Every structure is written in structure tokens, then in C-alpha cells.
Write the C-alpha cells for this entry.
Amino acid sequence: MHKKLTIALVAHDRRKADMVDWAVFNADMLSQHQLICTGTTGGLIKDAFEKKGVEAEIICMNSGPLGGDAEIAALVVRKKINLAVFLIDDLSAQPHEADIQMLLRQCRVHNVPIACNRYSADLMITSTLWDKEDYVPLEPRYVKFNREV
């Protein structure tokens, strides 16, 4: 991939080990891009990359419960994020559920690809569409659907 992307990385507590493992597995690719992470997740990825000798641009926002998810959602709205990977703990209640839903919704509304598991993240980061100059993602269309026609 030749185009430099801004990739958001977010993981709930019980998914942080999975995110770090995924990031290290994909470190060669991820180190070529700017990474925007929620606080704790970003710190863990920085530490793991340093141990492996990987240099990467990693910007840490606040932790999720302290507004990190909302900060990343704001970057999505401002078209500053190209791809988001959000490993969600679907088995535990989250105290900041509204922020989580807001981030997911803003990615959908603003047409930002968001992967919520490792498999979809791997498929997204390896897509050849990132470098196709003639590929322009279409903006979502929200039009009234008339069921009576």
C-alpha cells in the first residue's frame, strides 16, 4: 500500500490483548501509516512495537471511558480517519456505551470502513482499493423508500 492512511485503533479491556497481537502481526503494514488510538490501547501498542523494534507514528487520545471514543468519532466526522478497527467486548456491559454507539454510527454515516473483528480488519487493510487512484467510495445515499410503488 503506497497511500498513507490514518487508522484508528480501539479495543475494550478484554480485547486489548487481541488488538496488541493483531497490531504486532501487522506491524510492517501499520508502521507505514498514522495510528490514532484510545489511550490505554495506544500505550500497549507503543510498548509492543518498541519491544519488536518497530517505529510507528502513534497518537493517543483519552481512554475510551474518559472520552477517547468520542474524540475519535469527532475525527471521523472531520474526515481525518480512513479506517477504524474497534475490537468490542460484546460479552460485557460498557459504562460508556453511548460513546461506543456514537463512534460506530459516525463511521457508518461518514462512510468510514470499520472492522470489529480481526478477520474483517485483515481483509480491510489488505484491500487493493486503497491504492486505486480511480476508485472513489460513493457517499451513502439516504432517500425515502416508497413501499407502495
Summary: The longest strand covers residues 6-11.
